[in-house]
Write a structure and sequence with these properties.
206 residues; 3-stranded mixed β-sheet; 3 helices; 30% strand
């Protein structure tokens, strides 16, 4: 085979379960998929306000992380390896400098200390149940659930159970237009009034 022969990239049409996380990592384009136990799960579309909120929250976090040289933030198209046959694309996750060596071409193969998911009606059950369990088992220290319709951010912290397993417990809920001071980033202040995309709520395409 010559050096000029193009390689064949995996496509959904040719992949057969169980699909490995490496095969999933090579997928690109639209639609987007999570990988759950070797099976592709198409990610639902979200409202435009979801992306606006993501960008505003990520901007506060990115500015702080960059200023203090803590690492990098990545957003919703970055692939996180959960296991050999599972992977997710969290809305936001944090990669500290100490974990840079676990950034691959298509996958992050480490355990981010923070994952953030922005809830919407199409994904809330998955974020609150399946991902909560997966992220806890992976060892993610904090998991934030951002609930724009109810103007709240739930901060879940990992704890060890007596049987050796791990689970999250709710340690804080920040509501309304409060100033959010994340314990993971001492000194950071996020005025939620500057994060909520209120003017774009309840829009229709009629």
């Amino acid at each position: 085979e010559s050096a000029t022969t193009p390689t064949v990239t995996n496509t959904v049409a040719i992949l057969k379960p169980p699909i490995t996380v490496q095969q999933w990592g090579e997928l690109d384009g639209w639609p987007r998929y999570d990988l759950v136990d070797g099976v592709l799960k198409e990610k639902p579309d979200v409202a435009l306000w979801h992306e606006l909120l993501l960008m505003e929250l990520a901007a506060f976090l990115h500015a702080f992380v960059k200023k203090h040289g803590l690492g990098r933030l990545v957003t919703s198209k970055a692939k996180l390896k959960i296991s050999a046959f599972s992977g997710r694309e969290p809305d936001i996750f944090f990669i500290p400098k100490a974990l840079y060596h676990l950034v691959g071409k298509n996958l992050f193969k480490g355990v981010p200390p923070l994952i953030i998911e922005i809830l919407s009606p199409s994904n809330e059950a998955v974020d609150r149940v399946a991902k909560r369990t997966e992220y806890a088992q992976l060892g993610v220290i904090q998991y934030w659930l951002v609930d724009f319709p109810n103007r709240s951010i739930e901060i879940l912290a990992l704890r060890d159970r007596s049987d050796g397993s791990r689970e999250y417990e709710l340690i804080e809920t920040v509501r309304g237009d409060a100033v959010f001071r994340p314990t993971m980033f001492p000194g950071l202040e996020i005025p939620l009034t500057d994060v909520w995309p209120t003017e774009f709520e309840n829009r229709t395409d009629e």
